[in-house]
């Protein structure tokens, strides 16, 4: 689960929360605790998505996966299944030289 933990957001959280600790305002401490819980929830949710998508893949279901995309481009869609020649490599789906993260997929 911790491979999906957002380390950059955690470091920003630490940098922002240090001055809050010196202020000793209770609402700031509660808010920082909630933010920390959200970081852990996001990692846990992503981990569960990966587990479910890998289970769907092993059960020979067809997945629609997204790769790429950004501010000025749209994401590419790929149909992923064992019948189409895809296989699993750790937490990715691989076909030839293309790797797609397993958390970026949804069941078709």
SSE diagram, text form:
Elements (H helix, E strand, L loop, with lengths): L6 H17 L2 H33 L4 E5 L8 E5 L6 E3 L2 E4 L2 E4 L3 E3 L1
Antiparallel strand pairs: 1-2, 1-6, 3-4, 4-5
Helix pairs in contact: 1-2
Structural features:
alpha+beta; 3-stranded antiparallel beta sheet; 22% strand; elongated
Structure description:
With 108 residues, this protein is an alpha+beta fold. It has one domain. It has two helices and six strands, in the order ααββββββ. The strands form two sheets. The protein has a three-stranded antiparallel β-sheet, covered by helices on one side. A three-stranded antiparallel β-sheet has the order 3-4-5, with helices on one face. Strand 1 and strand 2 form a beta hairpin. The longest helix has 33 residues, at 26-58. It is elongated, with a radius of gyration of 19 Å. The relative contact order is 0.15.
Count of alpha and pi helical runs: 2
Order of helices and strands: HHEEEEEE
Q: Determine the strand fraction and express it as a percent band.
A: 15-25%
Give the CA-based shape: elongated
In the residues, how many domains can be counted?
Answer: 1
Structural class: alpha+beta
Biggest β-sheet: strands ordered side by side in the sheet: 2-1-6
Major sheet description? 3 strands, antiparallel
Radius of gyration, Cα only, in angstroms?
Answer: 19 Å
Low-confidence stretches: none
Mean pLDDT: 87
Distance between the termini: 25 Å
Instruction: Count the E strands.
Output: 6
Secondary structure: helix percent: 40-55%
């Amino acid at each position: 689960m911790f491979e999906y933990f957002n380390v950059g957001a955690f470091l920003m959280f630490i940098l922002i929360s240090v001055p809050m600790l010196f202020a000793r305002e209770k609402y700031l401490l509660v808010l920082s605790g909630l933010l920390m819980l959200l970081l852990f929830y996001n990692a846990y949710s992503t981990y569960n998505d990966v587990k479910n998508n890998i289970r769907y893949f092993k059960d020979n279901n067809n997945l629609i996966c997204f790769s790429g995309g950004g501010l000025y481009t749209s994401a590419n869609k790929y149909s992923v299944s064992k019948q189409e020649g895809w296989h699993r490599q750790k937490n990715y789906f691989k076909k030839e030289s293309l790797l797609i993260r397993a958390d970026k997929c949804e069941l078709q």
